[in-house]
Each structure stands twice: as C-alpha cells, then as structure tokens.
Amino acid sequence: MKHPSYLHSDNPRVPAAKHPFVHCQSIQMRFNDLDMFGHVNNNVYLSYMDLAKINYFRSINPYKDRPTKVDAVVVHIDTDFYSPSYFGDELEVWTAVTCISKRSFHLEQRVVNATTGETKCIGRTVMAGFDIETATSKPLDPMWVDAIEAYEGHALQCD
Question: pTM for the complete prediction?
C-alpha cells in the first residue's frame, strides 16, 4: 500500500522520505495517551511505532508456523517530533526498512495524521540479530532478509 502523498510534507522541518513506505498501521488513540496539555505524550509515539513494527513483521514473516520468531532486538531508537497530536486525530504509522547489513537493519517510521497527511514525528530504529538462547548477537536470518526485501520491493543493502 504505497501512499505518495505521505512522502511530502508542507512543514519545512520534515525531511523528505528517501524511500517508499509500503506498510501502514492505523492507531487507536486511548484516553491515557494524552498528557496534561491535552496532546499525545511523546513517549506514547514509541508505543505506536512498536505496534506498527509488530504488524510489519507479521506481514512479512517467512515462518508462518512461528509468528513471533523475529530473532532481532532494538539496539537504537531516535525520534524527531514536528507537530502535536490531539484527542480525536486519526493517526497512522508508516513503516519501511531502509537498509540491511549482515547483522542489523534500519527502520524508518512516520506517524502521520491520516486526515491531513501532516507528519507528527519520524522515528528511526536499528535492530540487530540476536540469539535468545545464548543472549548474544548473531547474523540476521537470510529468510528474514529475503522476506523483507521482497515485501519492500527492492534490495536494501546498507552503504
């Protein structure tokens, strides 16, 4: 599901996307997502992005018999905030894997007002291959790499 209007923002502070987004997750805002100023608390955006990551991985999972087998952990997150969201805003999280190396991959996620197309924030996450039994890093599973590249529709090697 590509939506080219989300690749552009009227806000000059929002950087243009350098890649297409094919995964979209609608968000159900909850009462406790709001802070004392009446807008979505900045920490809550990370929860929205986590939900979108889970559903992104479910969409591409090459192990249909093991829906939770991701074998990667978050090793870095950063988020830039551009505009507040308020109760009643219809929000979506657009997710794309932007590059893959032997041991890690990078995601970009944009929280967008579904009605106006306004970018609320952009999050960037690095996830690394992880062996849960030994609690050590490991190379990414080639089946996951192939599934991600097939879903995104192009090769994703990091420079």
Answer: 0.91
